[in-house]
Amino acid sequence: MVAVKGNNEQQQEQENQREEYRLLVESVKPKHNILKNCVMAFLVGGTICVIGQLFLDFFISQGLGEREAAAVTAGTMVFLGAFLTGIGVYDQIGKIGGAGSIIPITGFANSIVAPAMEYKREGFLFGVGAKLFTVAGPVLVYGIITSCLIGIIYYLLQ
Amino acid sequence: MLKILLAFVVGGLICVIGQLLMDLTRPSITPAHILVGYVTGGVLLSSVGLYQPLVDLAGAGATIPLSGFGHSLAQGAIKAVEQKGLLGAFSGGIESTAVGVAAAVIFGYAFAVLFNPRS
Amino acid sequence: MGQKVGQQSVSFSQPPVITSSATIVGPEEGAGPLAQYFDWVIDDPLFGEKSWEKAECKMLEESGKLALKKIKLETQDADLFLAGDLLNQIVSANYSARGLEIPFFGLFGACSTFVEAMLLASMLIDGGFAERVLLASSSHHLTAERQFRFPVEQGVQRPATGQWTATASGALVVEAQGDGPRIVGGTIGKVVDMGITDMNNMGAAMAPAAADTLLTHFKDTGTNPDSYDLIVTGDLGKVGQKLLIELLKKQGCNPADKLRDCGLMLYDTEKQDMHAGGSGCGCAAAVFAGYFYSELKEQKYKNILLMATGALMSPITCQQGESIPAIAHAVVVSS
Fold first, then answer.
1. Which one of A58, B103, C171, C335 has the fewest beta carbons within 10 angstroms of its own beta carbon?
2. Domain boundaries, chain A
3. Which domains does chain C have, with CATH numbers?
4. Could you report the predicted ipTM of this complex, rounded to two decimals?
């Protein structure tokens, strides 16, 4: 019994030390410049959306219906994101824009191309083929599952 | 012109929320977490009818962020249920986002094969 | 015969001599303030190879050959090759040993590997098990990033606490006889874990290990910060160095003016966008084998304490939420 108590006390002391150290780390850690990051995210994200809006207006003026135009716009933006990743520009935008470059669908394309391109040397099956879905995989999995659940709930409520 | 301004402001704000999520939470939150969160968040908002007004207001400002992808999934599923019943719950979401997904796979593959990482 | 001193330290009766050194670094390191001390700056991160992994392996192998060549020796003249790197199964070291054909021990101590190799080489020589040991360690920014973080073309922001894995390789030849700076002793570190889980803050994970080894070294050997011209840490970076100073202050020890950090010396931290500083097995290796070795030879420093720190996690344990264990080894080098 005494030994067990000793162990607990030791553990408690270790926890205290760790907590104390964690606070010390927090105090010396350089802070994110949150305001600047947010401004850049706003500008970069907003600009990407404006480019999307220009494409959307163009496709609608070419006589496409609203839903088709939206789909073609998404495809075009994916193309741009993938292309800019290929020529090594998108990671530079990402450094500046942060979430502003991750959240638009161009960022989704970036997260598909970047790992696939880098793992090409590991082969076309488990390199490119598998790595295309490093980030896209989870996105599709959770997107499809939730939308399917919503559909079922909607069906049951009808 | 107003449409473009709205797309800029709304799209920008959606991204700012993501930036705050990354900067203010644990360091283990990666871009993948953000993207998955935005898609599922988009599905949920859309299903309770909160995302459509945003799309009507801001156009691409709401559809280009990945939450718009979630919106499209949810609306696809709901519309297909109305037309085909239960089967639609399974097919609708994928059908309505098919162009985007196929474009992502095809362009993603093509550029990954054509280019090499440089930096 | 050398002996154990105190709890964790050793001293050598016939201090082994570092007779030669060689360094190969990448483009960013070659643009840094220490550029003139490096033997070979490569412009192409691929180093003429087909993959970054092959490039790192070639850097390691070539730096080893160069260190021997500088004192007109061939690979078969070395009794033993000690090497390590950051990659899974330390492949760079294994594959370079395949090319060198010298009896080989592969080492893993993450960024502490270079000093781990220096300590082991000295022990083997002073113990009479080898006459001449070649030791080397390397890291490559692009091989490490993909293993530990994100693909390089992915648009992500690096946090300010993140460190930049150096593209660098350093090699030393250590002999029982000869001219050059001598390894007179050292302290073998314990693994210390203070519960840091953030892979982007290695400095914070490693600082407690550094403090532990440094204080033990002073206690074991009866020395203090004033016994050394410099106390050189291997890549704690800005954040880790601050933490080390705080931790030492708590124990009544304040060597701040003696402290240098390889990770902060390798780059111009103001102009080059390296955030908290450099890291990687090659960082301390290149800074010691390049800069400090030449300054010791020129007698600019009489004796320095070189202490390299390593974070011993893997991306898998980190994904599982495990905290990051760290280690620090120290050697005393006298001119």
1. A58
2. 22-118
3. 10-175 (3.40.47.40), 182-334 (3.40.47.40)
4. 0.94
